[in-house]
Here is the input.
Amino acid sequence: MTNTTETKHLNKSVNYFQPEFSHIYIEEEALKWDRTEEALSSFPNAERIPITDYKQIFNRPNQNIFSQHNSKKLILAVKKDPFLYRGSDILQDTQYQNIYYTTPLINCVYHCDYCFLHGMYPSANLVAFVNDSDFYNAVDEGIMGRNFKSEPLLLSIAYNNDLLAFENKVSYCKNWIEYAKNKNNLLIEIRTKCANVNSIKEITSNPNILFAWTLTPNEIRRKYEQFTPSLEKRLDALEIIISKGWKVRICVDPVLYVNDWESIYNNLFDKLFSRIKHEQISDMVIGVFRMNKNYFNRIRAQKPNSELYYQNWGQSDNIIESSESVKSVMYDKIEEMINKYIPLEKVYFWKNAS
Ligand code: SF4
Here is the structure.
C-alpha cells in the first residue's frame, strides 16, 4: 500500500458508503401502482432490484441501522392490513379521543438521536407504500366506525416518518390533502421538521389538515439531530404556511434537560413569538423525552457511548422518561417562559402514559 493510499484510508472524511437511495427494492405487486412510477422517476439512476415481499429486505436479521443511516435505500411496497393503528400513549394529543395513525412511509430522511424509530424497526431503510387508495378506503371506514361520533377522527400520517421532508421525492402530502379536502369528520395531522414547503405552498388550504411543526433550539439540533434544518429555516417555512391559511400546531417535543436548558428554550420561545403570534396557531404541544422501554433498551445496547441513553431516566409503566420531579420543574419553568406569549389553555403538556 502506498503512502497516498494509506492516507486516503485514514482520512475519516472520505465517504465509503454508496450514495443515498442508490438502490431501490420493488415488490412485484407494487409495479401496478402509479405511485411506484413517481418514486422511480425521482431516482432515475438508482439500481432497481425486484423482490416479492418488502419484509425480506426490511426485516433481515443483524442489520446495523446506525450504519445504514449513512446510505439509506428505498423499498417500494404494497401495504396490507392493518392500515390504521390506535394512537399510542406516546402519540400526544389531549384534545381528541378518536386518535389514530397510519404509515404511508416507514422511517425518516432525518436521523435524530432521540428518535424511537431506531428502536422500533430493524432497518433504517425507507419503505414507501404505493397503494394510496387502500389507505384512503381504510380511513373512510375508520371515520364511519369511530367511537366518539361528536368528534372527528384525528389521523396522524407522519408518526413514523417525516412525510413532508420526503415530499420532493414522493408527493404523499399533496395527495392526502386532496383526499381529505371534502371529508367530514376527519382531521389529518402532518408533523414535520422540514423547511422546504415549495411542494405544497400553492395548494389551497383546507381545515381538515393540521400542520404540526416541531421546533428545536439550534444548540439541541446541532448535538442531537442530524440533517434537520435550522430553527430559522423552520420558522421561515412556518410563516409561509400560516400566511397561506393552514391550521398550524407548534410542537416543542422533546424538550431535553441539558446544561443551560432554561436559557436555550427561553431563547427558542422568544424567537418563535417574535415572529408568530399565538392567534395565528391552533395550539402548542410540549413534551419531555419519553420512549417505549423496549425501543429504548434496543437503542441503548447499540450506542454504548451515548450521553443521551446513559442518563438517569425515570420509568413509568413501560415508558422511559424524565423523572416526575424533573418533569415538574421543567413544565413549571416553561409555563413561566411562555405565558407572556400564549394563553396556557392553548398549550398541552405531555404528562404521562396513563
Ligand atoms: S424528524 Fe422525527 S421521525 Fe424523523 S428522525 Fe427526527 S424524530 Fe425521528
